[in-house]
Amino acid sequence: MSTTTTLTTIHHFINGAETTGEGDRTQPVYNPATGQVAAELRLANEADLNTTVAAARKAADSWGDISLAKRTAVLFKFRELVAAHVDELAELITAEHGKVLSDAKGEIGRGLEVIEFACGIPQLLKGDYSDQVSTGIDVFSFREPLGVVAGITPFNFPVMVPLWMAPMAIATGNAFILKPSERDPSAPMLLAKLWKQAGLPDGVFQVLHGGKETVDGLLTHPDVDGISFVGSTPIAQYVHETATKQGKRVQALGGAKNHAIVMPDADLDNAADHLAAAAFGSAGERCMAISVAVAVGDAADLIVKKVEERALAIKVKNGTEPDADMGPVITPASKERIVKIVTEAETAGAAMVVDGRDLVVPGHEEGFWVGPTVIDHVSTEMTAYTEEIFGPVLVVVRVEDLEAGIKLINSNPYGNGTAIFTSSGANARKFQRSVTVGMVGINVPLPVPVAYHSFGGWKNSLFGDKHIYGPEGVSFYTRGKVITSRWPEPTHVSGASYNFPSN
Ligand code: NAD
């Protein structure tokens, strides 16, 4: 007996409803743990893009005018709904991304923090007032929404990264169009439904699926006022250049090569625990993953041994298994690329400490697996050092002292996150003051800022001026207006003055 399975189709969410759209192209969405196609995704065409932007434009006009009290009520409700759907969202993330369920819940938790911060929008939008700046004249300033903003997001955080953007954009009075990654689009669709359930008017949050064509459409559409992008560096740079040329406000967060310095004075067991977690958690597919351990002096042999022990103990399984520590990588192409880079390092003379290239997970032979991999004696010319691997690979570069470690980090073109493991306050302070990286951890390997600080790297990890979420998010999604006002007394007799106004 033959069984036929019908593939689920993932639609767009336009103007308050799920819709097939007019574009007739589709793309498969995989379950990376099984290697099977799980759904087909509708891709937008130009007509879909125009419909979405028109709905956003219309919605922005009324949403930007609605009272702060009403906006806040929707945000509070949305917060409750997301919290109530953590399990469902996590299952969708794991099914399409592959990360383990507990990690998926972790990313939703970080997204919730941003919604909670956005719930305080009345306080965040309070303006400034200067009384009597000149005789009878007052000046006040406040911030207004940009209008229509689009968010283009990567595969590795299908809930958290959209939530870095949308709650801030919506709280500040904008309409938001999400163009999520084509690889794991189901969780963002559930977010759209939760926004609607929370009472958000139609058109204020929409989801449009597509690839380069759709992104280009958003970057050049005259009715899109701002672009938030998170993804790889070449695309971030392209998005920044293309959209700024169109006069749009742009923040484009790119890739990373995050180094962690391990000093001989560090608690090496603690450092090894954190290094392993930061390198192999989520299969290394985090923009804040530690991918380079910079082992200083005598720390090197000891830390390599300790990380090796931890890497060998990691349980790599389907992320739905309760005891899984790490899941698969996102695509066969990603696996192939990771394996190629590891092999190049081996050929160039690096030492393979743990080799995850040939990992097979029983019962899931078709999945996209790479096991934890540790490579020692890596030099700065090897692709394992120069490329962002975005897989479960930790490379170890050995240096003589802290100064050499800082020099190495500062010479790297990326500047997203970095960390130092040390028990010396003096070392930590020297590091935090001299390193040219946006987010710095002291005995904290993944220094992702809480929602009331902003998130952003330096150098090739961010193009644009503003970091994402937090106070800089408020500033990014709004523009300032300054009012200078005079209310002459009815009895006042004035004559024209042709000089530049003075006090
Ligand atoms: P990606 O750059 O391939 O894709 C990101 C988005 O851009 C997707 O929505 C995709 O559809 C779109 N896109 C892809 N190619 C495009 C093109 N040629 N023109 C226009 N749009 C295009 O990134 P990814 O593989 O989905 O995500 C992984 C990358 O994201 C890594 O480099 C990682 O470091 C980075 N990342 C950075 C941060 C950060 O905060 N700096 C956070 C998460 C991920």
From TrEMBL:
One of its GO terms (molecular function) is methylmalonate-semialdehyde dehydrogenase (acylating, NAD) activity. It comes from the Bacteria. Keywords: NAD, Oxidoreductase. Residues 23-482 form the Aldehyde dehydrogenase domain. InterPro entries: Ald_DH/histidinol_DH, Ald_DH_C, Ald_DH_CS_CYS, Ald_DH_N, Aldehyde_DH_dom, MeMal-semiAld_DH. The keyword Oxidoreductase applies. Its EC number is 1.2.1.27. The keyword Cell cycle does not apply. One of its GO terms (biological process) is thymine catabolic process. This is methylmalonate-semialdehyde dehydrogenase (CoA acylating). It comes from Paenarthrobacter aurescens (strain TC1).
